[in-house]
Structure formats: structure tokens, C-alpha cells
Amino acid sequence: MTRADAAVTLSGVSRVYGRGGAAVRAVDDVTVAFPRGGWTAVMGPSGSGKSTLLHCAAGLERVDSGQVLLGDTDLTRARDGELTALRRTRIGFVFQSFNLIGSLTAAQNVALPLRLAGRRPRGSEVRETLAAVGLADRARHRPRELSGGQQQRVAIARAMVTRPDVLFADEPTGALDSSAARVVLDLLRHMADAGQSIVMVSHDPVAAARADSVVFLRDGRVVDHLAGANAHEVADRLATWEAAR
Amino acid sequence: MMGMSRAGLAERWPLFVGAFLSVTLGVALVQSSLLLLISAATFDPPAGLSAAERMEFTDSTAAVVSMLGIVLGIATFLAGFIISSTFAFTVAQRRRDLALLRLVGAGRGQVRRLLLGEALLLGALGAAAGVPLGLVVMSAQTWMLRRMRFVPENFTGEWQDWILAVSFGTGIVLAVAGAMVAARRAARVRPLEALRETGDAARVMTVTRWLSGLIFFGGALALIIVAPHGGAAGGPAMAMNVPLPAAIAAAALSPLVVPLLGRLLPTGSGVAGVLARANLWDARRRSASVAAPLIVLIALVVGTAGAGASFTAAGIDQMRSQTHADLVVETTGPAGPAIAAVPGVASASTETSLPATFTTGHGEDAETETGTAVVVDPAAYAAAHSTGPLTALHGRTAAVGPGGDVPSHGTVKIQLPGLDLGEVPVVASVPAAMSGGDNALLPPGLVPAALLAKADTLSFVTLRPGTDQAAARAALAHLGTVSTTDEWLKADAKVRASTNDKIMLVIMGLGGLYALIGVINSIVIGAAARRREFAEARITGLTRRQVIRSALLESSAVTAAGILLGGVAAAGALLAALTSTAAVTGHGTLSIPWPLTLAICAVALLVTSATSLITSWSATRHAPITLLAARE
Ligand SMILES: Nc1ncnc2c1ncn2[C@@H]1O[C@H](COP(=O)(O)OP(=O)(O)OP(=O)(O)O)[C@@H](O)[C@H]1O
Ligand SMILES: [Mg+2]
Predict the structure, then answer these.
(1) Which residues belong to any copy of the ABC transporter domain (chain A) (predicted)?
(2) Which ligand is closest to the CA of A217, given by its number?
(3) Which of A73, A53, A56 is nearest to A7 (CA)?
(4) Coil, helix or strand for B193?
(5) Which has fewest Cβ within 10 Å: A53, B43, B224, B366?
(6) How confident is the model at residue B570 (pLDDT cuts 50, 70, 90)?
(7) Beta-sheet pairing, A73-74 with A65-70
(8) Which range has the worst mean pLDDT, A128-132, A138-142, B526-530, B582-586?
């Protein structure tokens, strides 16, 4: 894959928490490219550095060495103002714990990134985005009045309303039951088929199997790749790496 | 952006109510103190007063004005401290919300503007409520001043139109200033760290905190060191000011101390104790915010009252040790010859006190002070008050009295009621008394007898050895009121102590109340953000009782820490009082107002316990699951 095909490229990225004896190499010299218009899943045992890798790739976490490119933009050199601008335009982020703002309605939550960018959101724009995640009728509800799956779909709508280059999702189905998870995964699949680049962390082989390719992480290093595998194959491979600990 | 701000206002209402309340009360207190000060300074003597009465009026007005100046100073200090720390706390409590905003694309400038806009709005709203409340506070303060006879019955606080600008300015400036530092910090930390409360976001001892802590610690230390060199007037002024910087320093450095106190919680207190200890450490910021107004309250009340009482006691001791006489006779007009004629009287220092104004300097630089001059017999005075010889005091001269405020060399223009003495050379001075007294001594013969005839006069009478005191006393009773020196000193001490108490009450009564409300405020604000935490604890298996018990333990530990740190700051003032009384009178005097100290600690403990009981009870009212269902 050439750089032009990659939505995000990490070269030699490391992130170390703590110092001296207590230092943890959460991400250790990782080089990986996430393709444009594709859906990549990141898997690995708990504590293997998946979330950290995703945060680094999205410019939310500072890296200690290496380079992160979003398209042609070097995130590692970007100042805070530039990173903020990128979050409004080119990066969307979805958390496992949905992180919606509790005092705002679903529609207000979705409109927030546009407002922050200084735009007065058109009602149709927000409505369409909510409709795309199947929540057209829940626009006026507050997060506490929504189910977990619905809250996560609002969070995805919020991340998508700015039409980002890349959607980053950290275990988006981690807090959902299997049917709510399936709705969310169908949604992501639909978006990927429409050309959206997605990078998703998951420990669920069923979720990862819906992606186009899977990257395996262990102890902060990329140890394996899989493309077009089904859930069984993904689960087997994950078990191999977990057993190798 | 503003719409979001409004939505935020609705959701986190205890935070905003707390911030609003701190502004309202602070503005009311400052406005009332300022209006009273202006009213007192421009209060005209009633028509038809004699020259002597007019001078006395001016003298007592000057005393009230300087007292109200201190009241205003303390009100401004408290308003500044409590408003800015409350706003900083509300910002810190919302760090998570702000981080979420940052994660979905809010820039640093936007976060800052949002917070400053809020502070501006709350400052203005708080001031709008503070102005009418200030009028209520003013009538309460006026009532207190009248009742304690600091001002005449017809004194009233006058409204000034410009006070509107001052009150709104105070509210807005203090609110914005308080939010500013916290807003800069909230905007600066990385959003992910703020969300997870790690890294920079979790740091409590920020550079600003360290700096302000150390700077104010240095200021307090400097006052403590310099106070003993300040003399009878400067020493008390400096010592009484120690609590302010000391309290700020203690409050700033409190996150270092408060968690340590958690270790002292009885280990037998079970799971609630374990949780309370962990929270004290983990929520140092919150603990520090609750402790801060408490520290100020204790430091100010105990430190100032203690220093004031020590200086009063030192003044009384000094007077006792310097007064050498058997009897004291109070008469109207000098009764020297009549007293001397009483059988058994060896000597008597007859002292006739007159209101006076003293002017130093010329033209533009002229400065006029109102006070009292006392006409004495220099030799008898020196003997009765152990002052050293006053042989130079005769003819057209004056000496600096125990009350000071008159230059110790050169000349001073003295004006007595209806008599201008003109420029009088100052030829001697007696040691300054801790308790003040007459400003100047005048020799006999300078003031016409007619002027003295109606003036209050004290005669300190020494009897010949072997004289029957009762007989002498009976003979003197024909001339005026007689008491033994001991009785007279005791009565005088009682009056002084009660005046000191009244002054302290005027100075700190409402201020103390404000600080106490500040404590309640910060507990309520702190609890507002804890519903989720409480719910998590209950989901984990703690009963509602255990959660409340743990919150109560935690607040008791924080209160104890606040009292301890406030006590340390107060001790600074007491130390300064000890060393400066030693410097002036030769031996250090310390008078700690234990009943007041214990009462204020009990009130603090009661108020914090009651508040955290109520807040944690109300925060745990709903089933925990309803709170945890929404993952904000
Ligand atoms: N802020 C932090 N400070 C210190 N260490 C951290 C921090 N964040 C993560 N770590 C450590 O870095 C390592 C990787 O953490 P990370 O959250 O990336 O793991 P993960 O693969 O996402 O795990 P999980 O599947 O459990 O979410 C872990 O060992 C973790 O303890
Ligand atoms: Mg993770």
C-alpha cells in the first residue's frame, strides 16, 4: 500500500507511560497503515495498547517517537489549534462509554461539533445524520432516556456529522448486548461500503470479522495481520496470541 | 455556544447557585461596608455642639472611620478570596464536561470564552442580587454600630449612586478573575487526560498554587518578623494583618496536608473509613476547596481576636505595672490643691484631659489629627506613671503622651476647644502605652483655668506610710469618686476588654458568617459532582448508610484539617502578638480566646457535618442504577 492509499499512517510510533522502573511501553515502535475507504479492526489482549494506539492515530495522545500522518498531515507536529481544527473536520471519534453530554438532547449532541466549528447547523443536516443511524424519532431525547445501543448510535452520528476522513472507534460495541451491537456493526459496515475509512478497536471476534482487515497487537507491538477472515478464524488467531503470553 | 452554556446552567445548577451566592453575599458585604465608611467619614456633627463636644465628636468619628476601614478591608479580602476560589472550584469540577467539548472539536479559546462568559454572567447576576441585599446588610451593620454606641442614634448609612458601578465591578471582576486561572488551565490540559483524570489534569499542586502559597507564606513571615519592631501602634497593626496572608498560604498549600490527615482516621471505621481515606487522597482538589474558606474563617477569627485580646491584655498589664498610687479620684475640673490638703496625702498626680487637634507640617503638607491633650504636673505625673523625669516640660512646651501620634521633636500646632495654642515646641516624650491614651502632655499654666473647670480629671493619689486608708478615702469622697488603684485598674481593664470585644464583633461578625457560608457552598458544589461516584459505590455493594457515613467521615477529616491549618495561620498572628507585646512592654503577653475558639471549631464541625449529611443523603436518594444507566 502506498501512502496515497492510506487514510492514516503510523511509522515507528512509540508511547511510554511513566518513567524508570515503572515505565510501560504501551505502544512500542509500531508501523502500520490504515487504508483509505476501508474498515480496519485492531485486536489484542487486554492491556496490549489498542486504545493507546488508537488515541495516537487520532492525535488525542502525544507520541514519544515516530510519526503519525493523517493523509498528508503530520499529527505529531500539529499544534493544539490545528488538532482542534482536525477534530472538527477530518477526525471522528467514538468511545466505548459513549461520552455524550448529558444535558443536551440527541440532536443537540449531534449538532455540537458543527456549532463548535462556528456553523449554524441546518436542521435537515442533523436530522439526516440521526436518520442515518436510525434515530430520527429520538432527536429530542436526552442520553439518559436512550438505551445503550441508541446512545452509541448518537455518538456515531455526532462523530459522522462533520463527514470526517477517518472514523476512530474504541470498542464501540463493548458496552452493548449482541443485538444492539449488531445494529451498530451493520451501521459501520454500511458506512465503510459507502467509502468511509474506519479504524476500530475491539476484542470481540464477531465485531472484528465484520471489518475488511484485522491488525493484532501484543505488548504494544503489531504481531499479525488478517484480511477477509470470518469470526472463527479471527477468534482462533486471537487465542493463539493470547496463549503465547 | 451560548445555547450550550444555558443547557449547562440547567444541568449543573448547584455549581452555579453556589457561584452566584458567593458573588451576591460578597458584593453585599463590600457594598455595605463601603457605604458605611463613606457615611461615617462625611457624618456632620449635630448642630449646637460646644467646641469641646465638636472635637470629641470628630475624635470618635475618626475612630469609627478607621474601624470601618478595617471592616471594608476584611470584607474585600473575603469577597476576593471566596468568590475567586468558588469560581475556580466550579470550573475544576466540570473538567470532564469541558474535556468532552474539546474532544468533539472545541478549541482552547472557545472553552476559555465559554467559562469567562459564564463568569461574567454569574458575576453580573450575583451583583444584581447583591446590591439590594447589601442594603439589608447595611441596616444590620448600622443597627450593630448604634447598639454598641460606636455611632450616635441618628447615624444612617447613605446610598450613593456610584456604588452601583462599584458593586457590579466588584462582582464581575472577582468572578472573572477567579474563573480566569482555572479556565486557562482547563483549556490547556489535554482533553484525553482531563477525561481520565490523569497526567496534568490530575495535578493539584500547580505552579500557580505553589507560587501563591510560597509568596503569601513569605508575606506572613515578613509581618511576623517585623511586627516586634513596629512599636506600640505598628506592632498590633502588623500582627492583626498576619492572618490574611497566612490563611491564603495555608489554603494554597492545603492539598499537601489534607490527605495526610486522612491517614489519622481511625482504622477501625470499616469499609466507610477505607473509602473516605481513599477519597481524601484521590479528591485532593475538592478537599482543598472545602478546607479553604474554613482555613480563612479560623485564621481570621481566632488570629485577629487572639491578637486583639493579647494586645488589650498587654495594655492592661503595662498600665498596672506602671501606675504607682494608692487611690484614684475622679473629679470634674482639677482638684489638685484640695486633694493635697487632705490629711495623709503624700502626693497626687492630677491629670485633666481635653479634646484637642494636633497639626504638623505646613500648607499642603499639613496633617491634622484629633485626640486628647492632658494637663499634668510633670513631677507628680512622672512619679505616678514611672516615666522618667519630665523636667523640660514647663512654660510653652508639650510632651508626647502615651497615645503618641504627635511628633517627638520640633513643634506641633495644638488647638483646644475655643483656644488656639499655636506652635508649641515638643520637648519630651513618655513611653508609648500599648493601650493608647492621651496624645500630648501639657504643663500647668499653659491652659487657662476656665477651660479646665469642666473637664474630666483623674488624680492618682499616694498616701503617706502609715496613713489610715479608709479615713483618707472618706475625706477624698467629698471631692469626687474614689476607688483604690486596684479597683480602678480592674474597671478600666473591663471597659477596654469589652470595647475590644465589640470592635472584633463588628469587624468579624458578618465576615465570619460569609466565610461559613463559603464552606457550605463548597461542600454543596463538591457533592453535586458526586452522584455518580456514590451510585458506583452502591452498585459495588455499599449500603446507602455506608456511603453517607463515608462522606461524613471524609468531611470531618477535611474540617479537622481546615481547623488545623487555620489554627497554624492564627498561631502566626499570635506569635507576632507575643513578640511585639514583649518588645513594647518587656514581657510577652498571649491571651487566647478559648471559648470563642472552641465555639467556632464546634460550629464549623457541626455545619460541615450537617451539610455533607444533607448533600450525600440527597445525592443518594435515587436508586443508583438510574444514575449509571446514562453513560455521559
Ligand atoms: N494514562 C496512563 N498512565 C499510565 N499507564 C497507562 C495509561 N494509559 C494506559 N496505560 C497502560 O498502557 C498499557 C496499554 O493500555 P491500553 O489502554 O492502550 O490497553 P488496551 O489494549 O486498550 O486494553 P483494553 O483491551 O483492556 O482496553 C496498559 O498496560 C496500561 O496500563
Ligand atoms: Mg482499551
Answers:
(1) 8-244
(2) 1
(3) A73
(4) helix
(5) B366
(6) very high
(7) antiparallel
(8) B526-530
> CA-to-CA distance for B488 and B476, rounded, in angstroms?
15
Q: What is the pLDDT of residue B631?
A: 47
Residue A205 near residue A235 (C-beta atoms within 8 A): yes
CATH, domain range A38-46+81-243: 3.40.50.300
Predicted TM-score (pTM) of the model is 0.82
Burial B512-528 (b: 16+ CB within 10 A, else e): bebbbbbbbbbbbbbbb
Distance CA A202, CA A214 (A): 10
Residue B7 to residue A103, Cβ atoms within 8 A: yes
Q: How far is CA B102 from CA A172, B239, B632, in A?
A: 20, 48, 15
Q: Which helix (H) or strand (E) holds B483?
A: strand B481-484
Please report, in angstroms and rounded to a whole number, the separation of the first and last CA atoms in chain B. Answer: 19
- Apex B220 CA angle, B219 and B221, nearest 5: 90
Using a CB–CB cutoff of 8 Å, tell me whether B11 touches chain A.
yes
Q: Whose CA is nearest to atom 6 of ligand 1?
A: A17
Nearest-CA neighbor of B100 among A201, A117, A113, A81?
A: A113
A61, A131 in Cβ contact below 8 A? no
pLDDT tens by residue, B5-26? 555 555 577 788 889 999 999 9
- Ligand 1, atom 4, lies closest to the CA of A17
DSSP codes, A9-41: EEEEEEEEES-GGG-EEEEEEEEEEEETT-EEE
Cα–Cα distances in angstroms (integers) from residue B597 to residues B247, B570, B591, in the given order: 16, 11, 12
Tell me the domain boundaries of chain B.
Answer: 1-202, 218-322+493-632, 346-459
Per the CB < 8 A criterion, the answer to whether A164 and A136 are in contact is no
Q: Are B102 and A84 in contact (CB under 8 A)?
A: yes
Residue A132 makes CB contacts below 8 A (sequence gap 6+) with A157, A160, A187
One-letter-per-residue 3-state SS of A179-209: HHHHHHHHHHHHHHHCCCEEEEECCCHHHHH
CA–CA min distance B276, chain A (Å): 27
The domain segmentation of chain A, as residue ranges, is 38-46+81-243
- Is B630–A113 a contact, with Cβ atoms under 8 angstroms apart? no
CA atoms within 13 A on the CB side of A20: 1
Rounded Cα distance, A170 and A51, in Å: 6
How are strands ordered across the β-sheet holding A24-35? A24-35, A6-17, A65-70, A73-74
Answer whether residue B1 shows pLDDT above 60.
no
User: Could you give the CA distance from residue B67 to residue B502 in angstroms, rounded to a whole number?
Assistant: 11
CA distances from B147 to A79, B153, B156, B506 (A): 64, 8, 13, 11
Q: Report CA-CA distances (Å) from B43 to B27, B39, B152.
A: 24, 6, 10
- How much is the pLDDT for B47? 80
Dist CA B547 CA B609 (whole Å): 14
Instruction: Say whether pLDDT at B593 is over 60.
Output: yes
Sign of CA dihedral A43, A49, A53, A54: positive
* Cα nearest neighbour of A158 on chain B: B104
Q: Which amino acid is at B475?
A: A
Choosing among A15, A87, A108, A151, which should be mutated to test the B contact, i.e. which has the most B CBs within 10 A? A87
Q: Give the ligand with the smallest distance to the CA of A50.
A: 1
pLDDT in tens, B194-207: 777 676 667 778 88
B108 to A144: CB separation less than 8 angstroms, yes or no:
no
Count how many residues are written for chain B.
632
- C-alpha to C-alpha distance for B608 and B604, rounded to whole angstroms: 6
Single out the residue of A153, A162, A147, A112 nearest to residue A131, CA to CA. A153
Q: Is A52 in the pocket of ligand 1 (CB under 6 A)?
A: yes
Q: Enumerate the residues of chain A whose CB falls inside 8 A of the CB of residue B100.
A: 99, 101
